TrEMBL record:
Signal peptide: none annotated. Residues 452-486 form a coiled coil. TPR repeats lie at residues 341-374. This is HTH luxR-type domain-containing protein. It comes from Pedobacter sp. KACC 23697. One of its GO terms (biological process) is regulation of DNA-templated transcription.
Length: 614
């Protein structure tokens, strides 16, 4: 019979053992509560609730956590309230009471947000992570773990840090992420070593052994194989040194994993390994007798013992071990169908090998029955998870909406407050204005006779001002005459320049190769016509040419601008050809070239485009 299913049982049991809540330096008996004041009781009640939780007594743990929360609320001890709700969220998540787990985690978050204390917020985020881990929402779980760790960077709490890293380690074992399994197992252990919670440290050592198991499976390096048993021995030693502070289940997990280690990695002929495996399996079975929720570990230990009995041909003992394991699992209120299926399947195979086909068929039927129940259980749980997740998202959206409405209401309140202040200031201003006007009226009456005396003096000043304005007007007229003279000089200068150009024309008229006359006449005619068109356009649309040049993707020549001006004035091709002394074909070619420079499409009309400008 193969042993891999045992490995999965042991590892998953070890993973699910701890959702640690408080950093208890010492665990006190419940009788000590009476010796404390009400103000100091919440911390002790939280510690006792955690001790009950790790020992599997969930009812007692819930009761003590509720008492702690009630007392802590009374004295406004936000951190202890949050811890108490986090314990409840953890227990409800473990027992698959997803609705109650969500309610407890939300209560923790609500209380913590009222105070915004970093440690309280970190515990509240951890409670949210526990809930989302229970409903298999790894994205939200990782998010809240990250938020909690970020807060703990400012406020050191190695105990809570160890719990969060342990939770991250667990989720990465589901994904078989070897790198992160090692990373978070080490981080959890490093933080747990800074505390005095030996149960937490024992589970962290077990986590390191699992990480070493992953490492050995991927590398086959003997060092990693030796590390597995090394860390499991450290976890066992903690129980032997501090039996009151380490849960029996934590010790049982370390023992059963040690037995599984020798079963998987050593040959049948290695008598020393076989003896150690049998011893560890026996220790796990013995320590879990009478322990709450210890049936699964006992059944797993009996499964290993049955395997060794079968190897030694001791079939009576093999059957006895398997039957005992089956009987133990059936006593559970909520059977662990996964382990139960493995046990009855082993019994079916055993009886088949013994040629007891009637018994083999009986247990094979039981395996089919349990498989069906296991499937129904998983389906029901998945439905519950989906429903709770839907409700959680719905509630989160409602909370966001309420916060948004609260924000708007607050802004509206500030607005009304501002309006009230503005109105009050307005009334004050009006009263002060009336007061000042009254005073001003009285003063005005007293000053009227003074103003009458000043009137004559003012008239004198006005006459002097008129004389000054007249002098300024004469000065402006003189400046205007000077400007006219300058304009006239400029015109004369332009005439002189034109005269020079005409003389140049006459001197070059004999040149047969270069007909300067034709060029001169054409350019002069073009300039005159263009200036006239430009004048007409600028009278109506002075920004026509500037807009045209801005739109152009290539530089427009004066001829291009002139043609655009004619088109803007709605002239047809024939008229434009006559004015520009060119053929109609050249006008059409020029129009096509201008369309390209302006970046117009093939179907766009240049004439309409130019007429729409301005």
């Amino acid at each position: 019979m193969k042993h891999q299913y045992f490995k999965k049982i042991f590892l998953l049991t070890g993973i699910c053992i701890s959702y640690f809540i408080t950093n208890a330096q010492t665990l006190l008996d419940s009788t000590a509560i009476n010796n404390l004041s009400d103000k100091d009781k919440p911390a002790l009640l939280t510690q006792l609730a955690e001790r009950s939780r790790i020992n599997g007594d969930y009812k007692a743990a819930i009761r003590k956590a509720q008492q702690s929360a009630a007392l802590a609320l009374k004295f406004k001890n936000v951190t202890e309230v949050t811890k108490a709700y986090t314990i409840q969220a953890s227990i409800y998540a473990t027992t698959k009471a997803f609705v109650l787990s969500k309610k407890a985690s939300d209560s923790a978050l609500f209380i913590a947000q009222q105070s915004r204390q970093p440690v309280a917020m970190a515990y509240a985020y951890y409670a949210q992570a526990l809930f989302y881990n229970a409903i298999d929402n790894s994205e939200q779980m990782t998010k809240y773990c990250g938020l909690a760790l970020k807060l703990l960077e400012k406020t050191a709490d190695p105990y809570l840090s160890a719990k969060i890293y342990y939770l991250l380690y667990m989720i990465n074992t589901h994904w078989d992420d070897v790198k992160n399994v090692n990373k978070y197992a080490r981080a959890a252990t490093e933080n747990a070593l800074k505390t005095t919670d030996y149960n937490l440290l024992g589970n962290c050592y077990t986590a390191l052994s699992v990480a070493a198991d992953y490492n050995y499976a991927s590398t086959k390096n003997e060092v990693f194989r030796d590390s597995i048993i090394y860390y499991l021995n450290k976890a066992q030693n903690l129980y032997q040194q501090y039996p009151k502070y380490v849960a029996r289940k934590t010790y049982g997990i370390a023992c059963i994993n040690s037995a599984d280690y020798y079963l998987r990695y050593f040959s049948d002929t290695d008598q020393a390994a076989k003896a150690r495996a049998i011893r560890y399996a026996g220790m796990a079975n013995e320590v879990m007798k009478g322990a709450i929720n210890g049936e699964e570990i006992r059944a797993s230990s009996l499964g290993i013992l049955s395997e060794y009995a079968k190897r030694n041909k001791k079939f009576v003992m093999t059957e006895a071990y398997l039957q005992e394991a089956y009987s133990i699992l059936k006593t559970q209120k909520v059977p662990s169908y996964y382990t139960l299926i493995n046990i009855v399947t082993a019994l079916a195979k055993f009886y088949e090998q013994q040629e007891n086909y009637e018994k083999a068929l009986e247990f094979q039927k039981k395996a089919t029955e349990y498989n069906s129940k296991y499937f129904d259980e998983k389906r029901t749980l998945n439905a519950q998870k989906l429903e709770v997740q839907y409700e959680a998202e719905k509630r989160n959206n409602e909370v966001k909406l309420l916060k948004q409405r609260e924000k708007y209401a607050r802004q509206q309140k500030y607005l009304y407050f501002g309006i009230a202040i503005a109105s009050l200031l307005g009334l004050i201003f009006m009263f002060r204005s009336y007061h000042f006007r009254l005073r001003y009226s009285l003063q005005r009456e007293r000053q009227l006779h003074l103003e009458k005396q000043d009137a004559e003096l003012l008239m004198k000043f006005e006459k002097e001002e008129q004389a000054r304005l007249k002098a300024e007007q004469l000065l402006l007229e003189s400046q205007q005459q000077q400007l006219q003279k300058e304009v006239m000089a400029s015109q004369l200068q332009l005439e002189h320049k034109k005269e020079v150009l005409f003389q140049l024309k006459e001197k070059l008229s004999d040149n047969q190769k270069l007909n300067i006359n034709k060029i001169w006449n054409e350019e002069l005619l073009l300039d005159n016509d263009f200036e006239e068109a430009k004048f007409q356009i600028q009278q109506v649309h002075p920004e026509f040419f500037s807009l045209l040049n801005q739109r152009a993707q290539q530089k427009l020549t004066p001829l291009d601008l002139k043609l655009c001006a004619y088109l803007h004035l709605k002239m047809d091709t024939k008229k434009i050809a006559q004015l520009m002394h060119i053929e109609a074909k050249s006008v059409r070619m020029s129009r096509y070239r201008i369309k390209q420079k302006l970046g117009l499409g093939k179907d766009e009309d240049l004439k309409l485009f130019l007429q729409d400008m301005g």
